[in-house]
Amino acid sequence: MKIKSQKDFWSGLMFMAFGIAFAWGATNYTIGEGARMGPGYFPLMLGILLTIIGLFVTFEALVVETEDGEPIGKFAWKPLFFIIGSNLIFGILLAGLPKIGIPAMGLIVGIYALTFVAALAGEEFKAKEVAILATVLAVGSYLAFIVLLKLQFPVWPSFITG
């Protein structure tokens, strides 16, 4: 059978791999049932759903004809580096790394850093737009996690709050 869309074929396989991994990992926890869900219920259902989506996308890549076969292009290293890096920076700034002397900078500083570093992954960088986005994300995160959910983690840098 000929692959008619390389992008869809490999995307479908990726969905299936992650779905199977989630479902398999969920079996280490109590699954429960619909009315009394255990900690493994959601990852199991997510894994099953991802696997089904992967099967559908892979099947479609083998059946639906595309004009040029949709070949896979070159690997996008720059976005990958900046997106993963922004998440690592956010985690480090949120809680700090006491073992190497980096203090906790809190949620607000972490979100600003995450937004600015992640914005470098794109084709163009507009500081004003990124600053507006970071402010909206910081305010929204503060309202959602601190005010509404009452989660307990640092909001501001530890040297400011004491």
TrEMBL record:
Q: Name one Pfam family in it.
A: TctB
Q: Which residues cross the membrane?
A: 12-29, 41-63, 75-94, 100-121, 130-149
Where is the DUF1468 domain positioned along the sequence?
10-154
InterPro entries attached to this UniProt entry: DUF1468 (IPR009936)
Question: Sorted alphabetically, which keywords does the UniProt record give?
Answer: Membrane, Transmembrane, Transmembrane helix
Superkingdom per UniProt: Bacteria
List the protein's name: Tripartite tricarboxylate transporter TctB family protein
What is the originating organism of this protein?
Ramlibacter cellulosilyticus
